[in-house]
Amino acid sequence: MARLYRYSQWDGSQEPFEADADALLDALAEDVIDHGDIRRALRDLIRRGANGDDARLPGLDDLLERLRSRRNQTLDRYDPDSVMRDLKERLDDVLRTERAGMDRRLSEIEDNLANMSGEEAEQADRLRDLFKQRADRNRERLDQLPESTAGALRELQDFDFIDPEAQRKFQELMDELRKEMLGSVASEMRQQIENMDPQQMALMREMLRDLNQMIRDKLDGLEPDFEGFMDKWGAMFGDDPPRSFDELMEMLARQMGQMQSLLDSMSPEQRRELFEAMNAAMDPETADELAELAANLGQMLPFNEFA
């Protein structure tokens, strides 16, 4: 009878050589000799597995350990609590470093002062008092930090760190948080653009066309039909729509300035992906209207001031 072999891609879970029957019988016989109970020997073999000459036959204990390991890996990757725990631990490390740095610096000042005399000692004593006042203020601020991690991070934004290592750790933590946030924002924006259907794109194109016409009228010295524009498109501006043409221009300029600041903060790869999504989703007419809007707003208001 022909033997059937099945092949699959290696994923790290397969054993290259299975334990043979002789190895299983040897393990079973050894257990029977030790305890004299064939049922117990079978249970132990199933639970613990067996070692062969070239490979190991995993038992239930091995499989359970694999499941626990995989579960922990999944929780560490997707559990928001683990992210917050890591953030809290790193923040606590920053605070410990700052407190230890202040104590170490004060101890160094005291040691140096002990070796001084005369006018030099008086000047060093005044410097010590100034440092102690600064350190006391820092300790008081640290003691009064909010219990929440987010609140503590906000309070530390303008904190006058004494220890350079603590300041470096805090800045590194904030940079990583900003990078993660920007990555999420860029991903969400890209998904929103990619998910726009043709009808939504057509409405956007028509709204941009009307908006550009209104701005051109203003630039040509004509009175723009702001009320007509808002009657048609007011729902697109949320619960607090602009009440005049000037308010609309300032709002749009502010939004474009903020968008430019966001783009400047993104990595080149994030900007490239976002622009590729925009180019793929937008038809040439919509892209032209959007470019004209940016140019028109540049003439109306310097939107960089609102970034």
Structural class: mainly alpha
Cα-based radius of gyration, to the nearest Å? 34 Å
Strand content: under 5%
Shape: flat
Q: SSE string, helix = H, strand = E?
A: HHEEHHHHHHHHHH
Biggest β-sheet: count, sense, barrel?
2 strands, antiparallel
Counting structural domains, the number is 3
Distance between the termini: 77 Å
Strand order of the largest sheet: 1-2
Number of strands: 2
Mean pLDDT: 75
Number of helices: 12
Name the quaternary structure: single chain
Could you list the spans in which at least 5 consecutive residues all have pLDDT below 50? 303-307
The percentage helix is: over 70%
Task: Describe it.
- Mean pLDDT is 75; it is low at 303-307.
- 74% of the residues lie in helices and 2% in strands.
- It contains 12 helices and 2 strands.
- It folds into 3 domains: 21-73, no CATH class; 80-169; 196-306, no CATH class.
- It is an all-alpha fold and 307 residues long.
